[in-house]
Specification:
Largest sheet of chain B: 6 strands, mixed
Largest interface: A-B, 22 and 30 residues
Helix content of chain A: 55-70%
Oligomer: heterodimer
Number of helices of chain A: 15
CATH topology of chain B: Rossmann fold
Order of helices and strands of chain A: HHHHHEHEHHEEHHHHHHH
CATH class of chain B: Alpha Beta
CATH architecture of chain B: 3-Layer(aba) Sandwich
Strand content of chain A: under 5%
Number of strands of chain A: 4
Strand order of the largest sheet of chain A: 1-2
Shape of chain A: globular
Number of domains of chain B: 1
Chain lengths: 371, 254
Amino acid sequence: MGPRRDPVDDRTKLYACERIPNEHGGEGKFTSRIESVRSGDGSPGRDCTDSEDDRKRLGGDGVLAEVLTVFINGLQQGAIYVLVAIGLSIILGTLKFVNFAHGALYLVGTYVGLLVTLEIQLTDGKLAEWGFTSIGLGWGFLAALVIVPIVVFAVGLLMERFVARPFYDRPDTDQILLTFGLAIVVQEVFKILFGGQSYNFARPGWASGPVDLPIIGAFPEWRLYVIGITAVLVAGVYALVEFTDFGLVVRAGTRDAEMVELLGIKLSRPYLMVFGVGAALAGVAGVVGGPLYAVNPNIGTEILVPAFLVVVIGGVGSITGAVLGGILLGETLAILVAVAPQWSQVGIYVLAAVVLLARPQGLLGSEEVTP
Amino acid sequence: MSDDDRLLELDDVDAYYGESHILRDVSLGVAGGEVCALLGRNGAGKTTTLRAVAGARPPEVRDGRISFKGEDVTAMEPEDISARGISLVPEERRVFPNLSVAENLHLAEVSENASNTVGRSLGQVQVEHVGMTTEQVYEEFPRLRERNSQQAGTLSGGEQQMLAIARALKQNTDLLLLDEPYEGLAPQIIADVEDAIRRISESGTTILLVEQNAVAAMDIADRCYVVDQGSIVFEGTATELREDDETRERYLGV
């Protein structure tokens, strides 16, 4: 990231910093972030850097540009939610397993992505105490995009075998206690190792700058990549569920697992795959979201709540529902942040409540996994 | 029937649903090639018997032995039992309503296809009757071809029964377990299903049939067992059962 170029007005900073207020956790933190930008100590590449480099068009191109910007920002925000929520939704729909540790996979994805992409300086945490002052491979972002899904896929497989599987027949409350506990353990382990501070996850060089869009003008290129990568992955998962034998078995098994077994099909392997694929998607979300948001040990639990809202809004087990729910939530957030930022936190819950009142099973919810 | 002829054999099987003792010392045998009917009132233990054979849980078989082709299958998983050539067409058909007819049929192939990444290799298991191809199934049940892209949940009861049987026939099946195939079907459709069962039997597949409709079952069965309160109370040919007024009135109400 280059140095600060243009002075920006306070409103722009506010806007940029409030993209995902749920990750900031409340008014207090909000303010401190805004202050940090104001005072100019938001380090380059951190979660507020857009405001410096990319958003200089504000105030220039009128209402349409503003609306389109909000829309694309909403899509991008929604894309991250979709990536996390799909796994959550199909694991809940297929395996009937409530995974509160799903956010931990996002956390792992972000940190592994950071370490593959860059070499970071450690100042805090046990690793620094043990003498690792700098850590990371520095192989760049493309490497991270390939390696992270594989790593987190493997983590997902381990999670299925050793955490989820023994609890499939247990009540939801047991599953929640177990996985919520696991989420906290993972978060604390990262905190111990890397310290509690935020790391700077710079965008890849090839997508770090603004790109000129019609009407809107300059727009952060990376956000478009996030939308594009998500679209490709969602299409892939859709095809997997709709057109392959694996998907057929999963769809059938979601509806009537015993009958599938009576047909001579062992479900443990497809179930393992479902978990792995869901985990890998959350891992990718961590990588592509890393450069947009803060990288600290809390991001896993912070992404979990909106991801669950997306599942609830879209309907458990529905991939299309997760996409719809994610976009709806992302857009709602983006619009509220633009027009009434103090309501953005409340807004997403109101959205979920309204959808649930109208359709308790979610927009596209049914009993089975649908493409 | 000598013991050597027995394809399926249950020896003093005791099965439980939770703590409820459902099957009490059930012993029965099904010979290769025959149509055997298990009759009795609602709740007598007929479905439990079929589920126990197919490896479904519950019931839990706590005592006794179920053997198929001489091999003990009592504690096996349903998918392993299926791989040995036993297919269950369960009560209420249990077709996948969210899948199309073609997908329902294709699912039966997934389990057999050794090279498939989802299904498993059948390994050394020898199954005599190779499953039908989709084309053969469609010839047997032309209605299914007409509706192959339709969701199975939208089919009529009779069509769903055809689909459930067709699905079983697509598998390598030596023993077909049919649970109440006539349930909820109109008389005309019952005749169609009856025809289908006869043709399957003529092709050499052994059939163990559970029915409440004793009259219809006696029409196609070679031999019958009558079960009451979890115990076998009659064993004999269909002709013998027809002549045994007391058993029929007492246990079957006909």
